[in-house]
């Protein structure tokens, strides 16, 4: 893999409003110059916006959320899109769908997380669910970064990213 250009990582979910958005923000916060994160959804709703609880959880953790917006994964299948090195699905629905063709055949992995937007209860309960998901994402992303992904070839990157899915967050 390249060492002078950051690796591009795409996080996918169905609506691109919570888990994938938070993963994008966390990786961009922690990745420095080594990795650049993006996120998208397989079928975002019309006028989809990031979940307010996701943005609140990011803000409480001191992670920037400016510029985050929901978008379709079709954006990243276009010829002018950044070339992805690693594509990670973070919800089971998106993992089961037929993905578009990604130029360059990036490494892929599935890191399943329960959808915090399905949490019932008070706003405090809902925010706590988003914060728990954010913490789990952050721990797995920190582990990925500790493996020096910029030094890995595609197969090693895929094996390591998939192995992380087996670890308890």
State the CATH superfamily name.
Response regulator
Spatial strand sequence of the major β-sheet: 2-1-3-4
Give the SSE string.
EHEHEHEHH
Radius of gyration: 15 Å
Could you tell me the strand content as a percent range?
Answer: 5-15%
Task: Estimate the global geometry from the Cα principal axes.
Answer: globular
Helix vs. strand class:
alpha/beta
At CATH level 2, the architecture is 3-Layer(aba) Sandwich
Classify the helix fraction into a percent range: 25-40%
Number of helices: 5
Distance between the termini: 27 Å
Task: Give descriptors for this structure.
4-stranded parallel β-sheet, 169 residues, 4 strands, Rossmann fold, alpha/beta
Task: List the SSEs and their pairings.
Layout: E1 7-13, H1 19-30, E2 35-41, H2 52-60, E3 86-89, H3 92-96, E4 107-110, H4 123-146, H5 154-166
Parallel strand pairs: 1-2, 1-3, 3-4
Helix pairs in contact: 1-4, 2-4
Explain this structure.
- With 169 residues, the chain is of the alpha/beta class.
- It has a single domain (7-166), classed as Response regulator (Rossmann fold).
- Helix content is 37%, strand content 13%.
- The protein has helices at residues 19-30, 52-60, 92-96, 123-146, 154-166, and strands spanning 7-13, 35-41, 86-89, 107-110.
- The chain has a four-stranded parallel sheet.
- It starts with 6 loop residues before the first strand and ends with a helix.
- The mean pLDDT is 89.
Structure described in brief:
This protein has 169 residues and is α/β, with parallel strands linked by helices. The chain has helices at 19-30, 52-60, 92-96, 123-146, 154-166; strands at 7-13, 35-41, 86-89, 107-110. A four-stranded parallel beta sheet has the order 2-1-3-4.
């Amino acid at each position: 893999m390249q060492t002078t250009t950051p690796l591009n990582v795409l996080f996918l979910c169905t609506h691109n409003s919570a888990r994938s958005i938070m993963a994008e923000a966390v990786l961009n916060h922690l990745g420095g110059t080594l990795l650049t994160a993006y996120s998208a959804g397989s079928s975002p709703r019309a006028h989809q916006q990031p979940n307010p609880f996701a943005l609140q959880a990011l803000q409480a953790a001191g992670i920037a959320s400016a510029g985050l917006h929901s978008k379709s994964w079709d954006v990243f299948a276009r010829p002018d899109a950044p070339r992805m090195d690693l594509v990670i699905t973070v919800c089971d629905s998106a993992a089961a769908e037929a993905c578009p063709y990604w130029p360059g055949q990036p490494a892929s992995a599935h890191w399943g997380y329960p959808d915090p937007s399905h949490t019932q209860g008070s706003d405090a309960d809902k925010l706590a669910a988003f914060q728990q998901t954010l913490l789990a994402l952050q721990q797995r992303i920190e582990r990925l970064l500790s493996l020096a992904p910029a030094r890995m070839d595609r197969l090693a990157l895929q094996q390591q990213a998939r192995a992380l899915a087996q670890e308890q967050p």
